Amino acid sequence: MRKIGIPEIEDIATGAALLGAGGGGDPYVGKLVAMGAVRDCGPVTLLDPEEVPDDALVVPIAMMGAPTVLAEKAIGGGEYQRLYDMVSRFFGQKIYAFMPIEAGGVNSMLPIAAAARLGLPLVDVDGMGRAFPELQMVTFTIGGISATPMALTDEKGNSVIFETITNKWTEELARSVTMSCGGSVSVSLYPMNGAQMKQYGVRGIVTRSQQLGAAIRTVKTAENPEEHFLEFTEGYKLFQGKISDVLRETRAGFNFGRVLLEGIGACKGRSAAVEFQNENLTAEVDGKIVATVPDLICLVDTETFSPVTTDALKYGKRVLVVGLKCFEMWRCPAGIELVGPRYFGVDTDYIPLEERCKEVCGNV
Prior knowledge:
Blueprint: E1 2-4, H1 6-19, H2 27-41, E2 44-47, E3 57-65, H3 67-73, H4 79-91, E4 97-99, H5 110-118, E5 122-123, E6 125-126, H6 139-142, E7 150-153, E8 159-162, H7 167-180, E9 184-188, E10 192-193, H8 194-200, E11 202-203, H9 205-218, H10 225-233, E12 236-251, E13 254-263, E14 271-277, E15 279-285, E16 288-292, E17 296-301, E18 318-324, H11 333-339, H12 353-356
């Protein structure tokens, strides 16, 4: 058990944005929401999963929709209380604690804001260890935990509770409502007891985000910043280049696109491309796939090593493309079926990052 205040939020937002693999929203927007709540209501208590009783009701809080929309539409202020009331009434039981559903600049921050506003603790666990674009893409689905009852509300006060037959149906129906509500909403889903959370959750995600953020903040003091960055992230250098083009569109509540890169430094004369659907899905170097989901493909600024989200990609920006290993559960057959490259329409089998990148620039 420890406290999360303003300094911790700064680092958590940065580290979670890296783990968001390009998605999860703008960390600047997310941290403003969390910092405002902590300034108004005080620090948040962060619990280790083992500190949560097995029969306690634990609820993830998140934003659903296109991250680019949230940057303009923002949070209304009453969403957390409405979600709390809806879920508590449904179960006839008070919520014990909140938790993030994924890592990302926004969805790592909203649970902190909700916990501060409502005076509840936050649990150091999530359902991805990264970010994914669809709500059924969590380790809890692998464990057979239902996404519903799922509470959904927008900034105007429109709200609904879903009960669906599968988690994929929850995604389909909730996505339609999200589009009707302007492209982004606040949700509470995968309500579970403490025992289920401990068995299937990705532990230590908030702490890891904070550690990564702190390391990024101080990386330039290292003798070799790039080498130091790859060492503390346990990352694989896939490419170094300048963004030459960005193709993107918002469709069906997602940000879709492709970013093209021209090589610089050791990668000069080579080219690369990264496809994304909210999060980065594949990375190619000279037309050859070098990394795919569920492993993390992250773009970071070559000077500051700050993560660059898909909605912040701009022509001329110089970035390092880095691969990080995913949470081990994603590499099992059920995980690959749920979030592997073929689910996203990529015509290749999943091959672990460390095997794919043996012949990649910087890792020969």
